[in-house]
Design goal:
alpha/beta; Peroxisomal Thiolase, Chain A, domain 1; four-stranded mixed β-sheet; 11 helices; 23% strand; binds oxa(dethia)-CoA
Length: 334
């Protein structure tokens, strides 16, 4: 079933903001922490360094607020005009008390309601679906969507197979209605709960409440069966992208950019190969930011914003814990 927009209102991204912490964690530093080496990490993932929010007193909200303020300043936006704030994250400041509510208050979005969205690495993709639908409904005019994760707060820095991938960061976009004719075109989103055994944080929820056993057993850290996740990520992201391209009758030559979740350069390359897209048409920041989970897509938009023009066709793709995945088609509006 295609995404059909019965509304005459088209939702578009009209501004982008971002924040990454200053501190870098390089491959050579990781070599001192676990048994690994720069050659292996670069060859197997494409990552050279990531950013880490070192200050233990600061949570994900710190980066989300910075990204939102960057957008607000650039756009000269009055924050009281924002109707809703969505924060896609798997590392909220606290399990209860939405990080989005705190972010909205701190940026003075006093007329907004706010909530967190948890879909792991697909969080921002799902969030774009939510935000664009809210705009297309006609009930809301400005929705601020933020993808933010302090992955360093859940990564086990003794586990060499996961700690080499992740980094911290935040990105934000504003969804608004617009009459350029450009904006949200189509989406294909899916999930499969049988995947939760391969990528998770087991404890701290209702199934395994926090106890001395869960802490001692390392059950509050991120666990990933990398090989299995890799296999699913390649096949599901590729088929989602192909579905979007096929049903919108898009000639891949007319795609301006593929905007893929940044988990592993080999996954990204495999998708691009399948749709015959040259590397210069594939957005990438994995080399210097690693996998920032819910923040990868908006951080890509921030880095490529100056290269984009109205009407540019962008194909988004993501895959993450849950499992969750999908692809979307958006035409750039400015
Ligand atoms: O973002 C959300 C979704 N996440 C993903 O999409 C991530 C998907 N998975 C991956 O990106 C990759 O599976 C990893 C980067 C996590 C791991 O790469 P891999 O090529 O799948 O490695 P592997 O786990 O199959 O391990 C291959 C070998 C093993 O050694 P043996 O058994 O062949 O002797 C590992 O012990 O590489 C070894 N290895 C390492 N060696 C050096 C694993 N991690 C490291 C390391 N440094 N950091």
């Amino acid at each position: 079933m295609n995404y059909i927009n019965p509304s005459p209102i088209k939702a578009a991204i009209t501004a982008v903001g971002a924040y990454v912490p200053e501190d870098k964690l390089t491959n050579s530093e990781l070599e001192k922490m676990v048994e690994t080496n720069d050659e292996w990490i670069v060859a197997r993932t494409g990552i050279k360094e990531r950013r880490i929010l070192k200050d233990p007193s600061k949570g994900t909200s710190f980066m989300a607020i910075k990204a939102a303020q960057d957008l607000i300043n650039k756009r000269n936006l009055d924050p009281t005009e924002i109707d809703a704030v969505i924060v896609a994250t798997i590392t909220p400041d606290m399990n209860v008390a939405a990080t989005a509510a705190y972010v909205a208050s701190e940026i003075k979005a006093s007329n907004a309601f706010a909530f967190d969205l948890q879909a792991a690495c697909s969080g921002f993709l799902y969030g774009m679906s939510n935000a664009s639908s809210m705009i297309a409904s006609g009930r809301y005019h400005k929705v601020l969507l933020i993808g933010a994760d302090k992955m360093s707060s859940i990564v086990d820095y003794t586990d060499r197979t996961t700690c080499i991938i992740f980094g911290d960061g935040a990105g934000a976009v504003l969804f608004e209605s617009n009459n350029s004719g450009y904006g949200w075109e189509d989406e294909y989103l899916r999930s499969d709960g049988s995947g939760r055994m391969f990528l998770n944080i087991k404890a701290g929820g209702s199934l395994f409440p926090t106890s001395s056993e869960t802490v001692e057993g390392g059950m509050h850290n991120l666990y990933q069966d990398g090989k299995t996740v890799f296999k699913y990520a390649v096949s599901e992201m590729t088929s989602a992208v192909e579905k979007i391209i096929y049903r919108n009758e898009i000639n891949p030559d007319t795609v301006a950019y593929l905007v893929p979740h940044q988990a592993n350069k080999r996954i990204i390359d495999a998708i691009a190969r399948r749709i015959s897209l040259p590397s210069e048409k594939v957005m990438s920041n994995i080399e210097y930011l690693g996998n920032t989970t819910a923040a990868t897509l908006p951080l890509l938009l921030k880095d490529y914003e100056s290269k984009l023009s109205p009407g540019d066709r962008l194909i988004f793709a993501a895959f993450g814990g849950g499992f969750t995945w999908g692809a979307a088609y958006l035409t750039w509006a400015y």
